[in-house]
Design brief:
With 215 residues, this protein is of the alpha/beta class. It contains 6 helices and 12 strands. Strand 2 and strand 3 form a beta hairpin.
Length: 215
């Protein structure tokens, strides 16, 4: 299942427009904060799909019955561009365990590239809700590689994949290479075009460089 939050008019679209705007992007602090803000909205929307139980909360004047999340998810992200998006979701799932994946594009002289995986830091995820975030879903290769790396720590109950800007090609790749019925995609927007170097058009540029400076 795919949820594209930008298809419904809300303040979320204002944040997406600022993230895409090449002039606003010059302010790195604002760029990172907008990633955090959309991460918070993604977390809020995903929380609606998770199980809750009603607790009796003692107030100064009595007892209130309030639904509470039964289990916190495991939040995973791909370094480095995913960090501010991850932090936004962590602001809401503040009791979550966290996983970090080191993966990158290794370019060849002819302009082609392979996704290289280097390191994984992750708690056990067996039977847990897993949320993997990466701000850009271009070819989908790094997301699939990261998902299979995480399986070394167990099989999650369900996986939510979060991306700010995705491509249709990337979505199709996930459908072909991930287990059906076991994952849900949450995207801000889906663009149709990729360049020869697999950058999304119109996209937003290089998210990692814009957030943290040139490599």
């Amino acid at each position: 299942m795919v949820h594209i939050l930008g298809e419904t008019n809300s303040i979320f679209n204002q944040f997406i427009s600022e993230i895409r705007d090449k002039n606003i992007q010059k302010d790195r602090l604002r760029f990172r904060r907008n990633f955090e803000r959309v991460g918070e909205i993604f977390a809020y929307e995903i929380s609606k799909t998770m199980p809750f139980k009603t607790l009796q909360i003692e107030t100064p004047l009595g007892i209130a019955k309030v639904p509470n999340l039964i289990h916190q998810p495991v939040l995973a992200t791909i370094l480095r561009a995913g960090l501010p998006l991850h932090n936004g979701m962590l602001n809401y799932f503040d009791g979550a365990e966290n996983a970090f994946i080191s993966a990158y594009r290794k370019y060849e002289r002819d302009g082609s590239f392979k996704i290289k995986f280097e390191h994984l830091s992750c708690p056990p995820i067996e039977g847990k809700t897993l949320i993997i975030s990466d701000p850009m879903l271009a070819t989908g290769s790094s997301m699939v590689l990261s998902y299979h790396a995480l399986l070394e720590k167990g099989t999650p109950l369900h996986t939510h994949i979060v991306t700010i800007i995705g491509s249709q090609l990337g979505l199709d790749y996930l459908t072909e290479h991930l287990p059906q019925g076991k994952f849900t995609v949450w995207a801000g927007a889906i663009d149709q075009e990729l360049t020869k170097k697999s950058y999304i058009v119109p996209g937003l540029g290089d998210a990692g460089d814009l957030a943290y400076g040139l490599k």
